[in-house]
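Review box. Two proteins, two foldings.
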Amino acid sequence: MDLGISGKCALVCAASRGLGRGCAEALAAEGVDLVINARGAEALEATAEAIRAAHGVQVRTVAADITTEDGRAAVLAACAQIDILVTNAGGPPPGLWSDWERADFIAALDANMLTPIALMKALLPGMIARGWGRVVNITSGSVKAPIPQLGLSNSARAGLTGYVAGTARQVAGKGVIINNLLPGIHDTDRAASLDAAKAKAEGVSVPEARAGREASIPAGRYGTAAEFGAACAFLCSQHAGFIVGQNLLLDGGAINATL
């Protein structure tokens, strides 16, 4: 299927590895030029070179912390015109409700709620003026089924979901479509970190911890960055114009819910 977005330009955050890279790769395969961001310059440049070689698109890199004002300013300064925005930032650390103080919540909100909102506020006006745009926010399956040890993430991502629910409906009539992708467990560095935390808490090996988590997924495995990226690319396509303000769960069936 031709997604109809060749020649567009996308900003993909946290794109040097994991789900962000999966999204960048899938968009590049459709002929989309990229501005990609991550904190680590070396990994980011390696990713950019691999994407250029594989897909022949233009890829600009900005090594910066997207969760800071200076980082966002640097990224936005590199963007002459952005048609597609994919927001993404690493989740806050797991813990217990008694572990977290106000500063922990503020940091989580800055990274996983206020940063995507700031990027949307900066880029939506241009999309509206051109009459076309796509935004995909990578949030978490915890929006639909909160994960006890991820209370910081649960809180921040739920706030972003509420913001998108209203904003998406305000801009859809102007050709700008906003949706959220909710990953379950995918084979990324974040999953490895959570596997290690589970192993430590339960006194088992990391492979045993992973096997236990895989057993909780009806698909029987972790997701891949490539299949996540394919879903992202479709939501960014010309065919997704009637999908507005939705939360698409990609979790292998792990959350057992009718809706």
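Next protein.
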Amino acid sequence: MKEFWNERYSNQDYAYGTEPNIFFKESLKNYNPKGKLLLPAEGEGRNAVYAAKTGLEVYAFDISEEGKRKALELAKREQVTLHYEVGNFPELQLTHNKYDAIGLIFAHFPPEIKKPYYNKMMELLNPGGWVILEGFSKENLELKKANPQIGGPGLLELLFSLEEIKTDFSELEILKLEKVMVELQEGKHHVGMASTIRFIGRKPL
């Protein structure tokens, strides 16, 4: 997978554009988290740069060196600072911090690492901290067959369901949890009507 993402991010264009995900942007405006934000699987930095511009201290990671390179280029252009690491989550220096918000935007982890990653994220999330998630639902698999341009994983086990979100983030208070049809216009790899899960959770004080 690392090779796949390095190849995708090696192009001059930004694979998913440079504008933030709409749900992520709206959620930051609506809930206004302060402090430190963690962005797993952040790719080329579009959400990280936006969040930094709102005043959040942004920490991000990905498995792609090319993603980091592009993210830091975008950050320099927009005159903000990112703390960005490449590698496997449990081995990174950013696990030594505590966070006030975590943004999981199209962060689809393989089943064998998803639960350990989530457990570690919940450990690092401060009481009162937010989780903002948007990812492709299991129903998106059929939509992708009809229109590959909408993007998303091609394996069912990498996709989200409402029930799995409730289980995976059981210690959080659910403020929003819904499956929606959304018209994606994010670069050239998220284009068209897609089925996504949107979730806002908060860790009890």
